[in-house]
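Example complex used in Figure S2.
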Amino acid sequence: SQQGEEDPQALSIQEGENATMNCSYKTSINNLQWYRQNSGRGLVHLILIRSNEREKHSGRLRVTLDTSKKSSSLLITASRAADTASYFCATVGIQGAQKLVFGQGTRLTINP
Amino acid sequence: EPEVTQTPSHQVTQMGQEVILRCVPISNHLYFYWYRQILGQKVEFLVSFYNNEISEKSEIFDDQFSVERPDGSNFTLKIRSTKLEDSAMYFCASSEIGVWYGYTFGSGTRLTVV
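Predicted assembly (226 residues):
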């Protein structure tokens, strides 16, 4: 299984602090994607990092990928209350796969 | 911004009944997907669809499930004889170029089988 696993499972921080979430996976990947899910809502694509990339930025988001350790991290800087959500990593395999394999997710709570 | 639209948002059905979940993908997208999320669990892949045929399906997607793109705009998931364990959020997604780029997900249909 190439499933990604996130840690921590839950994270609670104060507004303005940085939030870091980690993801590990088991098999070689083509790319890794991060999604956000507000409670009871759909998944929103945040950022995609390809296997030949090490770091990517998008606004307050910074994603790193270490293929030797099969791990990725998502950093949200200067967190806001609106960032409260669940965050999932999802991997795409290299064997012509047409699916995302999601991790369990990290529930992030930003306290005002 | 273009959206993937799913209807209904919530459906309650009796065990053994057939249900059809509907999705309208983004118009210029070519790849379509169904995922599901049982409450408190991971999002799980069900099926991918490209060029009017299934390109990949998971073990969950057994003979009770089928997908169709009946008219060039809708994409449907049918469950022929629902079971209690089919209760979940079902998400439709579409992508212009497949999994090598991000997907756009719909808001989901909450299916409750009683």
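Chain A has a mean pLDDT of 92. The interface with chain B takes residues 3, 30-31, 33, 35, 41-45, 48, 88, 90, 92, 97-105 of chain A (CB under 8 Å).
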